[in-house]
């Protein structure tokens, strides 16, 4: 892409796989193989699940301490940075981050020129509150050759403010590393509540949203798969993925076309129509 042409069409991949709790070396090897395969299939941006390097259901803070590392200089982060450089692609991955005496459920964005930025999960779910500090970096949006990319993690997607804040900051695409679990009272045969929420968020904000979930059962906690890539009109471009199998979704996005999608008709625009004079 010429340097002055702006972001355009490219392929996004969401890698759905089953990390193994405590096996950071094995998880990183699997991640590398799947990222290489996605790159070979044409992906310019690869999104990986939440806590993809460590697993999710920690027994203790001591266990988390053994698995977490600094970003971007820890073992997991540095390996992803090197892989993105080598392949000339962008990668978003959930990571267990250690920083300043705290642990964060984090997501890192890295690209062909190296580390770009970190997001720390704002809304902690269930037993995460026992081990992780709440995110303190806000909802940053990063300028890249692929457009303006924001990140959120799993339960962050239950809050409309997450996507509205990112949209207001100019995001074109939001990458979601996630570990979705069954929701109370939901028919297990129905499409995931998470899919409904993220399709609605994409439509009401005019955003691409790429959700990479995990599968499997870890220490009695089941995960539901159904990774999804959604266009700015709210309709799925790829997925939902399988509920139990590892799978990589691929979809082409057109960042240059977002402005047209946000203009719903000659009178209505999903951003311009907001009544900021009355919202609190």
TrEMBL record:
Residues 10-255 form the CN hydrolase domain. It holds the Pfam family CN_hydrolase. The keyword Hydrolase applies. GO terms for molecular function: hydrolase activity, acting on carbon-nitrogen (but not peptide) bonds, in linear amides. Keywords: Hydrolase. InterPro entries: Aliph_Amidase/BUP (IPR050345), C-N_Hydrolase (IPR003010), C-N_Hydrolase_sf (IPR036526). PANTHER family: BETA-UREIDOPROPIONASE, NITRILASE C965.09-RELATED. This is Hydratase. It comes from Acuticoccus sediminis. The lineage of its organism: Bacteria, Pseudomonadati, Pseudomonadota, Alphaproteobacteria, Hyphomicrobiales.
